[in-house]
Specification:
371 residues; alpha/beta; five-stranded parallel sheet; 5 strands
């Protein structure tokens, strides 16, 4: 046999060996716990929710799912459980659209939860690639079909993570490996489910959430060079179509699930930015919000809450890290409001809170924020 042919055979043999070793390692360690709960090896978790949720849905014990965007990402499951008296699974997806959220919820509903708590932003409803074209969501792994399992086992990046988790399970190596493990180098640095996508202990919350940061964000988003995004939310018909397909479709398919949906308390500056930069955008958002409220309260299995006009929260800029994202203290307030049934939208007056918000936005003057 000629030397080039031998080299090719050796190369193919080596490549096959590497693939088989990676597959065996991923099967043995099973970092997402797709095949079995983690027992002999310490369970480790990732802040990459689009990946991690595929394992959590199949391995966690829950009767309530918690969904949302970055405004819901820092909630702790232990707080949800304690305040609401449930066994929750947080599935919030940073920067997610309604298609991603609904797909994830559908997968979780196969476990028959009784309740879904859904932080709902109007901007999640927009046209997006179908879920199988979304490179950030391993849809087939959620479905646990052959393609998904094969992709999981043959994933070289996960094999590296598996090797690191295996090394951390060795007592003599654990202290060193634990110190070296961080999210810059590795996807699975978290030892407890409750710590997934939460603020780290010891964080100076006041340095992250304060009026100075909120005002800096307002100036940033209203700068003519960067304010285009404030004008991109005016396609009312598209938003209605996507909302009907995703949110209404999901709720209609699951009449046995109780949906507690809430509209989050943006700071007043977000609305003022739209008022000052693009009144047409603000009008479109108002119109869609009114449609959303009327549509949702008509469902017997939906309880809708609107927290957007709570002046004591939205006008206190120390609650915000920018014009949208509120502090962990407000996370806890939201859970308390849900538990107490406060600020629930009345079917007889579905736009009452929205009308209150409109009046606040119209009356607000920027000199108020300097106080």
């Amino acid at each position: 046999m000629r030397e080039p042919a031998k080299d090719l055979i050796r190369f193919l043999g080596t490549s096959l060996s590497v693939i088989l070793i990676a597959a065996a390692l991923n099967f043995l360690v099973d970092p997402l716990q797709i095949f079995r709960p983690s027992r002999s090896l310490p369970a480790m978790y990732s802040n990459d929710s689009r990946l991690q949720n595929a394992g959590l849905i199949h391995r966690q014990d829950f009767d309530t799912v918690f969904m949302g965007t970055s405004l819901a990402i820092h909630f702790r499951q232990s707080d949800i459980d304690r305040i609401l008296g449930v066994r929750s699974l947080k599935l919030a997806l940073n920067g997610s659209n309604s298609q991603e959220q609904v797909f994830t919820l559908e997968m979780a509903f196969a476990r028959h939860p009784q309740r879904a708590i859904w932080e709902m932003d109007d901007w999640i409803f927009h046209d997006a690639p179908d879920i199988d074209s979304n490179v950030f969501v391993p849809a087939d792994l959620y479905r646990r079909n052959l393609k998904g399992i094969a992709g999981y086992l043959l994933n070289g990046t996960l094999a590296r993570e598996s090797l690191w988790i295996l090394a951390r399970s060795i007592p003599s190596l654990e202290p060193v490996v634990a110190r070296l493990t961080n999210e810059v180098l590795f996807k699975f640095p978290i030892a407890r489910v409750d710590d997934i996508n939460t603020l780290p202990p010891g964080l100076d919350v006041e340095a992250l959430y304060n009026s100075r940061r909120a005002m800096t964000s307002f100036k940033f988003v209203t700068d003519p060079v960067r304010s285009r995004y404030l004008t991109d939310d005016t396609d009312y018909d598209m938003k209605v179509r996507v909302f009907e397909r995703d949110a209404v479709g999901l709720i209609s398919r699951h009449p046995d699930v109780r949906f507690d949906i809430y509209l989050p308390p943006y700071s007043i500056l977000q609305w003022v930015a739209m008022r000052d930069i693009s009144p047409a955008t603000l009008a479109s958002v108002y119109d869609f919000s009114a449609y959303l409220c009327r549509r949702l309260v008509a469902f017997p299995n939906v309880r809708l809450y609107d927290f957007r006009s709570l002046r004591e929260v939205t006008h206190d800029l120390n609650n915000y890290s920018d014009v949208i994202h509120h502090s962990p203290a407000i996370d806890l307030e939201i859970l308390s409001w849900l538990e107490q049934g406060r600020y629930r939208v009345d079917r007889a007056a579905p736009t009452a809170y929205l009308d209150r918000l409109k009046a606040q936005v119209e009356a607000y003057r920027m000199e108020n924020s300097a106080r």
